[in-house]
Specification:
By secondary structure, the chain is mainly alpha-helical. The protein contains eight helices and four strands; from the N terminus they run H-H-E-E-H-E-E-H-H-H-H-H.
């Protein structure tokens, strides 16, 4: 869930862009900037946004959409399917942690195929996880299959005598392989450095 963070220096903030009903050009620009900030990944599922994918500007708190309170801090670029299957009402999940909270990554972890709070009693994080639907069966299954493919690829590299660095280079060269990064990091020990490298070369959709 590393793509939920927000930066006050975002171009969206600097350019004072606003999401408006029917404002296709402006909304598309917002979506492109969000995708770039997220390194081309869906903020909720962590799957790479492929060129033929449908993806949306998703309003985290749906109550704010098309109101004066709606802003950059409420917007994420997400896969259309994920957007359509996220809970429609936020009230049943309140209170919940803000998705861009500075301490999110110290309060959540990926373990045994799902996202869970580090502290089992951290209900704010659990409510956020449930609201976003990151452990939905469909997302879980696609994530599991992807991790299995990348683990198998790593095994082939190692069997062939290629270095770990060569394997990492291959992942960065094909960002789709870095989909579900939190899961890959937990399974393969991938370093955050790979995303830093990706940030210098990837073109968001």
């Amino acid at each position: 869930m590393r793509y939920l963070k927000k930066v006050p220096t975002s171009e969206i903030v600097q350019q004072n862009l606003n999401y408006k009903k029917g404002a296709t050009v402006a909304n598309r620009k917002i979506r492109q900037i969000l995708s770039a900030e997220q390194l081309g990944f869906c903020a909720y599922s962590e799957r790479f946004l492929r060129p033929l994918d449908a993806f949306d500007v998703e309003h985290f708190d749906p109550r704010l959409k098309h109101t004066d309170q709606d802003s950059y801090w409420n917007w994420y670029s997400v896969l259309h399917w994920v957007n359509q299957h996220k809970a429609k009402k936020i009230e049943p999940f309140e209170p919940l942690l803000a998705p861009y909270a500075d301490d999110l990554m110290t309060r959540i972890r990926y373990a045994e195929g799902i996202f869970v709070p580090i502290d089992p009693n951290d209900h704010l994080v659990q409510n956020l996880i449930d609201f976003l639907g990151v452990n939905r069966p469909e997302v879980y299954e696609e994530r599991r299959k992807h991790v299995r493919r990348i683990v198998a690829q790593q095994n082939l590299y190692m069997t062939a005598g290629w270095s770990q660095e060569t394997f990492w280079d291959d992942l960065v060269d094909d960002p789709d392989k870095l989909s579900f990064f939190s899961a890959l990091q937990a399974e393969l020990g991938l370093p955050d450095e790979l995303l830093d490298r990706l940030a210098t070369i990837v073109d968001a959709p």
